[in-house]
Specification:
There is one protein chain. It contains five helices and eleven strands. The chain is α/β, with parallel strands linked by helices. It has one domain: Spore Coat Polysaccharide Biosynthesis Protein SpsA, Chain A. Helix 1 links the parallel strand 1 and strand 2. The longest helix is centred in the C-terminal third of the chain and has 18 residues. The protein starts with a strand and ends with a strand.
Length: 226
């Protein structure tokens, strides 16, 4: 089982060092980070760009997929402690915590501006597909299956990375909800991931990913499973 995460910047490494090291004591964890000295239990890959790009998460997943030729279980570092490691998947689908349907009102379409409407219509054309995107994969949890087209997927991903990093940066005009991401570039990386799995006909599925928390009510003597 190959788990992966990304932790870049002193604020993030300080906040999640303990959670990462705790998780990696019992599980093989690959981590993309700019401070490899902090994570002795993990297999570390150095983040070397002088600007933070959210899209490097996608590159990291694809790199591991090509190297190991198996499913990659990517979990955002702030979700790592809650992840249910009993989950084991064997099919060819990509799994996420939620697949947002783009012709519905939801937490993703609520922040759409004219830019996002244009991306939805045109992003697949960047990689040779004449369709409108129907889905948006939530990026915090990406369970990516190995695919024999991995080299072509990586090639297409480089095209999408350049496109999205040019669109999403500090000066981008977006809804206020996205302002917290503007310390970096290439945010809304789910656009690229969803375009890739759409082109290569990888099914998208949702999964209940949280570990169960069992609480005992001593007064009333019953279990609560959260």
């Amino acid at each position: 089982m190959i788990y992966a995460t990304m932790c870049v910047g002193s604020e993030w490494t300080a906040s999640y060092k303990e959670a990462i090291n705790h998780f990696s004591k019992n599980h093989t964890l690959h981590i993309l980070t700019d401070d490899t000295s902090l994570f002795s239990n993990s297999i570390c890959y150095e983040y070397t760009r002088n600007i933070f790009s959210y899209y490097e998460k996608i590159n990291f997943i694809l790199k591991l997929s090509k190297k190991y030729k198996e499913r990659i279980y990517y979990i955002d570092v702030d979700w790592l402690s809650s992840y249910n490691t009993d989950i084991k998947l064997t099919d060819n689908a990509i799994y996420t915590y939620r697949n947002f349907i783009l012709n519905e009102k939801n937490a993703v379409t609520a922040f759409f501006t004219e830019t996002e409407l244009l991306i939805r219509k045109t992003i697949l054309s960047k990689i040779g597909i004449n369709k409108t995107l129907k889905d948006y994969i939530g990026e915090a949890l990406i369970i990516f299956p190995y695919n024999e087209n991995i080299d072509n997927i990586i090639s297409d991903s480089k095209i999408l990375q350049k496109y999205l990093e040019n669109l999403y940066h500090k000066e981008s005009i977006t809804k206020k909800r996205l302002n917290r991401y503007k310390k970096g570039i290439g945010y809304a990386e789910g656009w690229g991931l969803t375009a890739l799995v759409t082109k290569y006909n990888i099914p998208i599925k949702q999964i209940d990913w949280r570990k169960k928390t069992i609480l005992w009510n001593y007064q009333k003597k019953y279990l609560i499973i959260l």
